[in-house]
Amino acid sequence: xxxxxxxxxxxxxxxxxxxxRLAMYVCGPxxxxxxxxxxxxxxxxxxxxxRYLEWTGVEVFxxxxxxxVDDKIIARADREGRDAAEVAExxxxxxxEQMARLGVLPPHVAPRAxxxxxxxxxxxxxxxxxxxAYEAAGDVLFRxxxxxxxxKLSGRRVDELRSGARVEVxxxxxxxxxxxxxxxxxxxxxxxxxxxxxGRPGWHIECSAMAGRYLxxxxxxxxxxxxxxxxxxxxxxxxxEAATKEPFARxxxxxxxxxxxxxxxxxxxxxVVTLVDALDRYGADxxxxxxxxxxxxxxVDLSEERLAEAAAAIDRWQAFLRAAARLxxxxxxxxxxxxxxxxxxxxxxxxxxxxAAHAALFDLVSAGNAQLAAGDQAAAAVSRDALRELAGVLxxxxxxxxxxxxxxxxxxxxLLELRDxxxxxxDFVTADAIRARLSAAGVVVEDSRDGARWHLS
Length: 457
Description:
Largest sheet: 4 strands, parallel
Order of helices and strands: EEEHEHHHEEHEEHEHEEEHHEHHHHHHEE
Number of strands: 15
CATH topology of the largest domain: Rossmann fold
CATH superfamily of the largest domain: HUPs
Helix content: 40-55%
Shape: elongated
Distance between the termini: 37 Å
Structural class: alpha/beta
Strand content: 15-25%
């Protein structure tokens, strides 16, 4: 498999540290608020990578952290007169719930920053011991210029950062670019005992400590949004490699940003669509299709038009599954199913090419509908089964509603008979009321020359 590596700025083979096993760390949320629509992309991209690799037989060990101590969490707790731990717990649970609704596989380990303070302290002590960090009035700062490779991920040079930096003057720092590993406690803030007095960790050291704890050095892949490349991921590399003298992560996978009317979706900007609202309105499959319809590296702008296109695509897939749901025949030889699998695999092997993978699914649907029209049920069953399988690899929870349909069919058919009788006697008020009640229950009624047809929405 070939993936774009932010570190080398090229598409290159994904070479695993341990053959047959991918060790992956994905930066999770800072839980100070409800997840928004943009958070979905940062979770869907590694989810598809994991699902595909597992489908091909690769074992994946997936770690995704939760930042549950941070300036933003503390600020929200202060505004609301609550404890910071209470805020973190509330929104951490909400994030986990919404990821489950989105169909994202849970990580094998979901470490919280507050559960790994000792690992952070130990890592900071190593950095102080080798001269890469220093104490300053209860804070501990990383000495950026001590790490020769600083800037290799983002492509930024230290001297250019220094000349263009908008950094507040801090006389405690050896250099304005130095960043905090440990912050001295302030009144009312959560804090922990340390060799430098009570305090709390900086954001960057949290991920370094947790990734090192569960994956060791030189692990396979680190993922996250493109907005984390600098300074967060750059600082992770610097402090981790300065401490261990080994490579931190071999491959860096970054997804493009979601924008709304051209601006990055951000709570600070105020242009946020919450994931809860989006899932309620569109459903998980539509949101997933919206993001996977373009390259994971490309920015994507949120619009009703694009969401409508995604919904129409999902409806097309589901319509074929409904039409083929009751085929009770032995599938024929592979035929289009094998061709689709080959195209699907080739697409994802080439830098996680989900748009081309979607094309393979559309080809399956087109072939399946043609097979149904021709009465070739055995071939249509192959296309149906292949669609279910490959769509599942992308994380779609497509449902043909066949089992539910079988259970409710007698009731719906009886109501449609009553509706036909009402229409025959020109009692359109009753006929419309029956259709409206069915619609409210999730039953879509379509009138045709051959009579009313229905399916579950």
